[in-house]
Specification:
The chain is an all-alpha fold and 387 residues long. It has 2 domains: 181 residues, Growth Hormone, Chain: A (Up-down Bundle), CATH 1.20.1250.20; 189 residues, Growth Hormone, Chain: A (Up-down Bundle), CATH 1.20.1250.20. 84% of the residues lie in helices and 0% in strands. The radius of gyration is 20 Å and the shape is globular. GO terms for molecular function: transmembrane transporter activity. It is a multi-pass membrane protein.
Length: 387
């Protein structure tokens, strides 16, 4: 009797939804609140949030290349082992530094999985590649959107430990589904031929001024996104807003991303990248700078939703713009550099914001973040005008 094997796409979408749900649940809104319960300072909280993005800087680009040699399945399973084991480590944490170490370990899961899963889908589905990638992204965003609501509820009704047990369950289920994956595409047979090409492609992309500038715009957007993800929860908590409402505030942002991102991507294809990215950056800047002036559950929810709209508008088009600027077919290298620079920005955001909050308060920190987005808009406007 022939054994049943689910399609690769159904499996990878299911695994991605579970894995990203588990990852998001571990940080939104629980991470800054858990760090605060460990008596971490604002600066230390910035470093804790940053810790999980460092692996993305270190391994996002090599992970894709390595999967070409070892096979996609092996790399995906390696990341899923981290997804399944990391949540249990949160249960024994007693200090802020231990939390930072666990976040660093957990970061390798998303860094590897995000790169390799996208590469595997693009490699297998050439005829309907964009549709498959968009559907996969939507499934992971749904998982990412549910997590803040469940996390805030579990904190309010139970404890931090309950959140991380839920993370563990989702991570173990993702690993179980991952064991059903089949690697139909054989790994590359000639490492001597492929590796020099890998480095040559990297050099080509790094020398392209347009690609690097768009990557910096993406980094600026993710810098602010990472900072808001960490410190909007703390700002709301400082106002006396309960954890379950904080979950709704952050969840509203992610829900707006779910619905706006596919729509704005289609708009970008019709009206051009600049007409989408530039307004998105300015919407994000306005929503961030207004946060201190609407210190209520409703006000913060509306501004969080607006920030999510701006974020979705920008990120729906930056990768496409990088692809537009790519020469000689080095799309993998261009996207790898984009993701790495993005992770650098996301790493800097919480640390910079934690320092600013500690020195000058939330209003000054949010104003600085808004100024970064406005600067990115000016940079992109000059690039596209020259082009």
């Amino acid at each position: 009797m022939k054994s049943f094997h689910p399609s690769f796409f159904v499996l990878i979408a299911l695994i991605g939804g579970l894995a990203i749900f588990s990852s998001t649940l571990s940080k939104t809104p629980v991470l800054p609140l858990f760090a605060l319960s460990l008596n971490a300072t604002p600066a230390e909280i910035g470093w804790i949030v940053m810790a999980s993005t460092i692996p993305g800087i270190l391994i996002s680009y090599p992970a894709g290349a390595l999967s070409d040699h070892l096979g996609k399945r092996r790399m995906l399973l390696a990341s899923l082992v981290v997804f399944a084991t990391a949540p249990f480590l949160y249960l024994v944490i007693e200090t802020a530094w231990q939390l930072m170490a666990v976040r660093f370990y957990h970061g390798f899961a998303t860094a590897i999985f995000g790169t390799v899963a996208s590469a595997a889908i693009a490699e297998r589905y050439s005829a309907d590649r964009a549709a498959r990638l968009s559907t996969y992204s939507s499934v992971t965003i749904v998982g990412r959107s549910i997590a803040p609501f469940l996390g805030g509820t579990l904190i309010s009704l139970a404890s931090f430990g309950a959140v991380y047990i839920a993370c563990a369950i989702a991570g173990v289920l993702a690993l179980g589904a991952g064991l059903l994956l089949r690697d139909d595409t054989p790994p590359a047979t000639s490492k001597k031929r492929e590796l020099p090409h890998f480095w040559a492609s990297l050099r080509t992309v790094l020398r392209d001024r347009g690609i690097m500038l768009v990557s910096l715009v993406e980094a600026a957007q993710y810098l602010v996104f990472g900072a808001i993800e960490a410190f909007l929860a703390l700002f709301a908590a400082s106002l006396g807003i309960p954890a379950w409402q904080i979950g709704i505030i952050l969840g509203a942002q992610l829900l707006s991303i779910v619905f706006a991102k596919p729509l704005m991507g289609r708009v970008s294809d019709h009206v051009g990248r600049r007409r989408v990215i530039l307004p998105g950056l300015l919407i994000g800047a306005a929503s961030v700078v207004l946060l201190p002036y609407f210190p209520s559950f409703v006000g913060l929810s509306v501004l969080s939703l607006a920030f999510g709209l701006g974020f979705a508008t920008v990120t729906s088009s930056t990768a496409a713009l990088v692809a537009d600027l790519t020469k000689d077919g080095h799309y993998g290298s261009s996207m790898g550099v984009l993701r790495t620079v993005m992770d650098v920005g996301q790493s800097i955001g919480p640390v910079l914001t934690g320092f600013m909050v500690g020195v000058a308060g939330y209003a000054s920190a949010f104003t600085l973040l808004a100024a970064i987005l406005v600067t990115a808009a000016l940079m992109l406007g000059l690039l596209l005008r020259d082009a």
